[in-house]
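Suppose a classmate hands you a notebook page containing two proteins, each written out with its sequence and a corresponding row of structure tokens. How would you begin to make sense of it? This section walks through that situation. The first entry is reproduced here exactly as it would appear on such a page.
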Amino acid sequence: MTRGERSIFARSWREAVSATGVALPEVVFEALTGHAIRDLTAEPFAPAVGAGLGAALVDAGLTDPAAPIASAPVLLAIAGSVGRAEVAAGYLVALGQGHQARRTESVLPDERARRLRILFDNSAAAIAIGDTEGRILEANRSLADMIGIAPDALDGISVYDFAHPDDHEHIRTLLYEQLIPAGKGTVSLKQRLVRADGSIGWMNIGITFAKGTAEGDPDYLVAVGADVTDQYRHQAELHHQARHDPLTGLPNRRHLMETVNRYSATADEGALAGLCFLDLNRFKQINDRFGHTVGDRVLSAVAARLHADTREHGDHLIARIGGDEFVALIAPPTTAERVAAISRRLAAVFREPVLADGHRLPVTASIGTITTRIARNGAESLLAAADAGLYYAKRNRSSEPVPAPDPNAFDTAAAFELAQAVTRPLR
């Protein structure tokens, strides 16, 4: 983290705690920021070190119980900037404990309880205290607002009541196979949240085992979390953009390669997969005569037809891997007959001319196919094999899809060399 970024965090922190009525010089917050960064970047990371920073707040003069609450958003931002967002909840719990511990010697029990109640009720973080069976005993308004119900409606319900059903087993494993048997520590998870209106959100949550303070006292689970739905959606959108073609909306080469490699790593030995490599014929002439705007609309129209076939039949993935090149991937297990049938069906989408800016343009494609064993074959070599099949299709001037020779025992290394040597100049 740069010095400038630290200064920004320090100023933000100073402004955040100004509401507590204590005005401290910025240098104090620069020191506190450095303390937080050291804690959050330590290897191995232990959430309990947050107690030290909580004590440091008191030592700096930030004795108001609202100081940890005011500090929480800044500390969450610092944790996110150093890649520790998923463990920030446990760190903040320890910070609050450290802050309170440093103040307890001179604070009367009733006053301490009152201030803890203020902290609990007004915390921006979602907080819940539960028993070791997973039932909520008390929760604050932030958690209730996150779910969309009244705080008292949370009393006695199970954590599973607002967790997504698909996450129940993961939560059970964390709580009843790790945290509770250990009798100490914190587990962190990013889970889906089912709101009262049925919508789905995401939250980062840390659950800490709190042992009873005296003999016979019950143990508790303390959960502290934050709504990260917007962050999750942003990450999902970035992931989608990185794996889809902006012009046509189809999966791109990266998406295709990742899918092929996943099949390659998980397919049964001997399982066959199919690839159909499509290349538009004389597409350059369309661009040269009508301009790239019309060319782009032709590509979009072709992509829409190919994608419509995918939606209708659901038996392959269609991707645009660049220029006027498209690839259809037929997942394993498949057969040569099935791949041939799909490739003929894809060829049929070119029977009707494409309408673009008032032009009725006949568009055709050459299609090379390959059906081959996919286990432990890399994506590059399999694409090269399909590309070589495309070379044969262009060479034979066929309007029908052309398979590469001997597809079930195709020499993919040789195919790659062939595709590099002869396919590109023919287009």
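The notebook's second entry, a different protein, reads as follows.
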Amino acid sequence: MLYQFSARAHTLLSSPLLSIRTQTRRSSMISLAEELPAEELFPLSLLAEAASTVISADAGALQYGDPAGYGPLREWLAGDWLREKGVTVTEGGVLLTTGSQQAIDLLSRVYIDPGDRVLVENPTSPGFLQTLRMQGAIIIPVEGDLDGLDPDLLRRQIELHKPKMLFATPSFTNPSGILWSLERRREVLDLCIAYNILIVEDDSYGDLHFQKYGEPWATRFPSLYALENISDGGHVLYIGSFSKTVAPALRTGWAAGSREVIGMMAAAKQMADWQSSALNQRLLHHLLDVTAFDLREHIAQLNREYNTRLKLMVELLKRPAWKGSSYDLPSGGMFLWVSPPEGMDVMALLKCALGKGVAFLPGPLCSVDGSGNHIRLNFSHPGRDELLLGMNLMSEAVKEFTARS
């Protein structure tokens, strides 16, 4: 038969992002494209212990659970972990989701109507752009600099477009890796409060920071949620995930905010999948609260290793093939945002790189209008040897493309 899909559904199948992800699943492909942590640093033995204990202790672990998520894990999250970040949530103010992407999707379903205007950092997460396009939102880009969004530009866009929501990642923006200054955080928050705009703050990368300061991280770079300091009825929905710090396959993310917003998202979740995996959530809670696993120490280990891999990638970018390229060194996150040598078409470069067995994310996929000529390189997933090989292949692709040109 002739299937009549919605007009917006075709944007999913035509997205180059889908093609890149499909090709990077090949075992022979080295991916510098995806948002993946280092799997050799997963706490495998403790996860195996937790899984065995949880399943053998209670058959209820395999039963349907609370749509809002496993209660003890929500309590653990809202306890010392978020309080250490200056985040206080009221009862009913936390929802566990299938990764942070689902939290964004659920909010978009209940908050965005076709034609609503939404502000985003430019460049921004390609996954978030896809979600907004599926909802029929009009996406308004806001430019910034190394300190974060430009408040003057933000005000102009607000007054011109009357947006309903701002999506932002103040701590290591995907893809640029920018860390907003404290002053910018306050200015952006004040503007959104003044104009009654909901901020969706994605802090999925916020724990992956490489520099040490004399004061606690959350004091020097507090979340927008913590700065507003309103646990109910506030202007910020705070989103995070265990995918970048523990293991992606556990598919456990979360959203914290006003009970009214969380309640609407929970209602939408019951229509989407009823609940995220209760087994995974119990397993994760057991790992965090019962076993010898120390999440803070684990994150410190990740940060040491990721910093080493970032430095290795930067050294490899000093090779002659990359002459004329530029980048700003991030102080955390998972990505290096590179402007390649002048005149290089990154979409054409991607085809050349894929032919050599290495993938990266082209910058136009992170742009509202598909413009720009950057590439996003992930340094967290490939091991050091694989990273060296991947960057060698990238250098070959750059030299071959330059020779053709």
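A careful reader of the second entry would note: The chain has a mean pLDDT of 93.
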